[in-house]
Amino acid sequence: MHPYRATDPARPSFNPDAARRARQAIGLGPEEVSRAMRAAYGAAVAPITVLSWESGDETPTEAELRALAGALWCSIGDLMGTPTTVHQHRLARRVSAWDVAVRLGVAPETYETMERTGRWMLTERQTGLLAEMLELPMSAYLEVCGQTAALDDLLRKAVTTRWQAYIQPVCRLLPLPRARVEGVLHYLHAEYQSVVGTLDWGGGTISREPNGEGRAFLGRIVELFCERLDL
Fold first, then answer.
1. Does residue 175 belong to any structural domain of this protein?
2. Is residue 198 within 8 Å of residue 209, measured between CB atoms?
3. I need a labelling partner for 143 at 20 to 30 A (CA). Which of 19, 25, 37, 41 fits?
4. 3-class DSSP state for residue 129?
5. How far apart, in whole angstroms, are the C-alpha atoms of residue 192 and residue 176?
6. pTM recorded for the entire structure
7. Looking at 48, 79, 110, which one is the last position of a domain?
8. Is 44 a member of any domain?
9. Is residue 204 part of a domain?
10. In this predicted model, what pLDDT tens digit does every residue of 106-147 receive, in sequence order?
11. What is the CA radius of gyration of the chain?
């Protein structure tokens, strides 16, 4: 089992520009959007609030986002920014919590509790099914499987010593092709060494003591790994 603590925000990620473009594409004014949200979805949202969302001064709640998407004849995912939580990925994929629960073989209320609290208690198989169903990026997968700290440790060692020795350990930790892991580790190692410099070490290299830039690099090592995977 893998417990996980998440910080799921109260409001979904939101793309103001996408909302404005969607409204303009169907030729509606803020007043018409407001009326449609109220009439069809019971969302009492003033026209000025619609404009405030589009300017980025405010963001809609999940219920308001659903109503806005309906009024603009688009999907919730079309109006969202980059999802940062499992809950947001599920919304963007238009998958219900019930469907996810059935696929994982857990009670719907159990899944909803895990998603809401971020305390994930899934087997490795269930984690893989969830990642596949919601097309989770590596950053979200790590959160669910609870392996962020373990990966951080491996990556720090890989970039500061001999990266080749950590290909297999990373592959054992994550469901990734060996060639992909090899390429990312090689890249991160080279980037880190260019920041701090190296010393000869038994036919290989060892990093010098990290400077401020090097410490910042190590502090973001998991984030950099995930970013490189997405390229």
1. yes
2. no
3. 19
4. helix
5. 22
6. 0.70
7. 79
8. yes
9. yes
10. 999 999 999 988 889 999 899 999 999 999 999 889 889 889
11. 22
